[in-house]
Amino acid sequence: MRAWLSALLVLACLAPTAPAAASETPIQLSLLAPIQIFPASYDVTGLRLNILYGRNHDVSGIDLGLVNQVDGDGLGWQLGGVGIVKGGFLGLQDNVVNVVGGKLEGIQLGAGNITKSAMGLQVGVFNYAESIEGVQFGLVNYTDSLKGIQIGLINIAKNGFLPVFPIFNAAF
């Protein structure tokens, strides 16, 4: 009986628990969401490693993996194949394909970069922002509202000094 109670006590101590006020963890390991240590509803503040596909609400810190999805906001460095942030992102998004549904404040580096609005830098083959304050550097750059410069083969800015212009475009 005593051995049974000791084993039960050890298992209870090893079981992952969440703080009562918030669902937050300093580390997350994901194979293919929902096969991950903590549920997608948790916030990660620290390190998230996604072998194939990871999904969480907010992520602050380092986010590494093949496909990194953040349902809320991201803060820090995101590195991998595809990075999707449904809210805003502050930091460096460094994936082959980067998508931010809200405001990007920082840098997007990738073959394809897409964001609703940006304050910073986009560097890639194709860059798209509904509005940007900063620089787009790539083969094709597109924005509805530019406050800064575009450098690339094709630059499209509806409010630029010309709506479409090769090599560079600007609006201030």
Structural overview:
It is a single chain. By secondary structure, the chain is mostly beta strands. The chain has one helix and eight strands, in the order αββββββββ. Strands 2-1-3-4-5-6-7-8 form an eight-stranded mixed β-sheet, with no helix packed on it. A hairpin with a 6-residue loop joins strand 7 (112-157) and strand 8.
What percent strand? over 45%
> Can you tell me the overall shape?
elongated
Arithmetic mean pLDDT: 90
The residue ranges in which pLDDT falls below 50 over 5 or more consecutive positions are 4-21
Number of strands: 8
Q: Helix tally?
A: 1
The strand order across the widest sheet is 2-1-3-4-5-6-7-8
Determine the structural class based on helices, strands and strand pairing.
mainly beta
The N- and C-terminal alpha carbons lie at a distance of 77 Å
Binned, the helix content reads under 10%
Radius of gyration, rounded?
20 Å
Oligomer: single chain
- SSE succession: HEEEEEEEE
Specify the biggest β-sheet.
8 strands, mixed
List keywords for this structure.
172 residues, mainly beta, 8-stranded mixed sheet, 1 helix
In short:
By secondary structure, the chain is mostly beta strands.
Topology:
Elements: H1 2-14, E1 24-32, E2 35-36, E3 43-56, E4 59-70, E5 74-85, E6 89-109, E7 112-157, E8 164-171
Parallel strand pairs: 1-3, 3-4, 4-5, 5-6, 6-7
Antiparallel strand pairs: 1-2, 7-8
